[in-house]
Design brief:
With about 260 residues, this protein is an alpha/beta fold. It has 2 domains: about 220 residues, Spore Coat Polysaccharide Biosynthesis Protein SpsA, Chain A (Alpha-Beta Complex), CATH 3.90.550; about 40 residues, no CATH class. It is about 45% helix and about 20% strand. Strands 1, 2, 3, 4, 5, 6, 7, 8 and 9 form a 9-stranded mixed beta sheet that branches. A hairpin with a 4-residue loop joins strand 6 and strand 7. It is globular, with a radius of gyration of 21 Å. The model has no long low-confidence stretch (mean pLDDT about 90).
């Protein structure tokens, strides 16, 4: 692709040929083609590499070699991407339908993070998860925004660094948290579904590792937000208590506020 594309879609894969082919179909069938497609494979031995080779005419860049984990693979993709916005659609993930990029590429023009809702697929049900707006410290202490539903301006990685490869699961959450809470990057929410996500992924299975890594990052970068969050929860619980309701009823708290 001689002209720099608006979007770089990056797919990472390791020994998930079935999921990879599902992602391929989703990407290749898009009616909007103003994107480049990069596939980073971790040296798979299950036929994934052959699947990539068989579709190389539809892939702008691909690599199959051993890596040091999921975020090492993502960082390889970032360094090769040329698009203004990056979208990580990893092996098994799907774009919502064949027209979703055509319908929404015009939403990508100014903000540094542009995020959408996600369609979740469980073993026995499906649902649509709506990510909150606006983004603040509570969003990231309680959850995050969707990695496969967020367009990230490529220059954010140049300004703030790549994904932390010492983390196994939550490095994308750390990146989003730092970008929003520490660096005040611009963001926009689009009230539409961008991607489908199968709820059997790494972060949904390894809940203990996820919690441990998140706590480590919060302690290092956001201790003040944790203290504020705990204080606000305490105040919320107090307001719900019978004693506080009684004091409110008799006007005791109102009197204290007047004194203050």
């Amino acid at each position: 692709m001689s002209v720099k594309p608006l979007i770089s879609i990056i797919t990472i894969n390791f020994n998930d040929k079935v999921g990879l082919e599902r992602t391929f179909k989703s990407v290749f069938n898009q009616t909007y083609q103003g994107f480049e497609y990069l596939v980073i494979d971790g040296g798979s031995t299950d036929g994934s590499r052959e699947a990539i080779e068989n579709n190389k005419d539809k892939i702008d860049y691909y690599l199959s070699e051993a890596d040091n984990g999921v975020y090492n693979a993502m960082n390889k993709g970032i360094k090769k991407a040329t698009g203004e916005y990056l979208l990580f659609l990893n092996s098994g993930d799907e774009l919502y339908d064949s027209k979703v990029l055509e319908e929404h590429y015009k939403d990508l023009h100014t903000e540094e993070l542009i995020y959408f809702d996600i369609f979740r697929i469980f073993e026995d049900k499906t649902d649509t998860y709506k990510f909150p707006y606006p983004l603040n410290y509570k969003v990231f202490l309680e959850g995050t925004i969707g990695h496969p539903t967020t367009f990230i301006k490529r220059n954010l990685f140049e300004k703030y660094g790549y994904y932390d490869e010492t983390l196994k699961i939550v490095s994308d959450w750390k990146f989003f948290s730092l970008a929003i809470l520490k660096h005040n990057c611009s963001f926009k929410k689009v009230d539409a579904i961008l991607s489908k996500f199968y709820m059997n992924g790494m972060s949904t299975i390894n809940q203990e590792v996820t919690a441990s890594e998140r706590n480590k990052v919060i302690a290092q970068y956001f201790p003040e937000y944790r203290r504020l969050y705990e204080l606000e929860n305490l105040m919320t619980n107090l307001k719900k208590s019978r004693l506080i309701k009684l004091l409110n009823y008799i006007g005791f708290l109102k009197a204290i506020k007047k004194i203050q």
